[in-house]
Amino acid sequence: SQKIEQNSEALNIQEGKTATLTCNYTNYSPAYLQWYRQDPGRGPVFLLLIRENEKEKRKERLKVTFDTTLKQSLFHITASQPADSATYLCALDSARNSGNTPLVFGKGTRLSVIA
Amino acid sequence: NAGVTQTPKFQVLKTGQSMTLQCAQDMNHEYMSWYRQDPGMGLRLIHYSVGAGITDQGEVPNGYNVSRSTTEDFPLRLLSAAPSQTSVYFCASSSGIHNSPLHFGNGTRLTVT
Lengths: 115, 113
Fold this sequence. Notes:
The complex is a heterodimer. Chain A is mainly β. Chain A is 0% helix and 56% strand. In chain A, strand 7 (62-67) and strand 8 (72-77) form a beta hairpin. The mean pLDDT of chain A is 91. Chain B is mostly beta strands. The chains are: A mainly beta, B mainly beta. The interface between A and B is medium-sized, with 26 and 27 residues.
């Protein structure tokens, strides 16, 4: 069956350290993968998109990798701050190049950055 | 720009009642979708639309109806509410189906008693 798994339901790290979140998928062949941030009581907000032919994407303190062999994406936040505390969701296209196919989401990882 | 606007923010229904969750976007996006978010289940797609007059079912469509008469609006109808439909509902839009980030509203928290 098809699965998207974000390995940790919750992750606690010290301020200033690098947070690494994992997204693994099974029985999908996504052409791209997206990461979102969700704060309590709010809708998810788009952060980064990485395509299958891109190994790595960066935006300020954020870095995403995409390994189609391992079927895994890693999301890194360097020099983490308490304001980075939120739930992070990965999402991928559920049927490769098949036309009108929407995003499927993982369950998310709740990150807490402790000062 | 308001982005994606959902109303109401909160709603309590009794079992068997019907209601419509409203969603409007002002970004001229062709693609719109409805998700529900439950603890431990993540975001699950209910229905989506790739343009006015076109809708399709997602992963969990039963008990919900949608229509898309304009580009801007994508209402979600609960025909006969059930306690299993207690959830937070999110509407999202994007400029296209592929490679396009979703813009989410801030959700409607629905409780069915």
